[in-house]
């Protein structure tokens, strides 16, 4: 993994923006796979459909960034700022989002299978229809988080989250929520909706 210079990164982003705006007729889709982007500021940047697989984005500022349908496979986003970022349909298989700050982020339809969300702040985030099998949520904050239609299994570790107050979820999430030590205290704040009534 090699540190990318700001000059080269700017060129890649300019070509990607042109590629997005032209519908692929001009420019070039950004390939930032295996790039060392530690602590970089990419807030408000359009990175949709970018290849960020195995990239180091630890501590990066990705707030309000468009990462829809991006390939974030096995990427390191620990301690990253993802507030109000758009990650709809992103492939985040095995991504490290531990300690990520992601209030208001849109992760709907994202593949988060085996992702690490330990101690992540997902307050007001949208994880509707996200794939959450094998996800670590130990110590995560799910305040007013939307899990409607999310694919939750026994190894999702939903019961290990720090808090799930005002959570919105489908009925199939309840068997795992009731295992939470604060279920009796917080169950009255949970809103259960059918998948057909999904709130986005």
The CATH superfamily is identified as E3 ubiquitin-protein ligase SopA
Q: In total, how many domains does the architecture comprise?
A: 1
Q: Termini distance?
A: 37 Å
Number of helices: 3
Q: Indicate the CATH architecture.
A: 3 Solenoid
Shape: elongated
CATH hierarchy, class:
Mainly Beta
Average pLDDT over all residues: 93
Strand proportion? 5-15%
Run of helices and strands? EHEEEHHE
As a percent range, the share of helical residues equals: 10-25%
Report the strand count.
5
Structural class: little secondary structure
CATH topology: Pectate Lyase C-like
Would you mind describing this structure in some detail?
This protein has 200 residues and is largely without helices or strands. The chain has one domain: E3 ubiquitin-protein ligase SopA (Pectate Lyase C-like, 3 Solenoid), CATH 2.160.20. The protein is 12% helix and 5% strand. It has three helices and five strands, in the order βαβββααβ. The strands form two sheets. A three-stranded parallel beta sheet has the order 3-4-5, with no helix packed on it. A two-stranded parallel ribbon has the order 1-2. The radius of gyration is 17 Å and the shape is elongated. The termini are far apart. The mean pLDDT is 93.
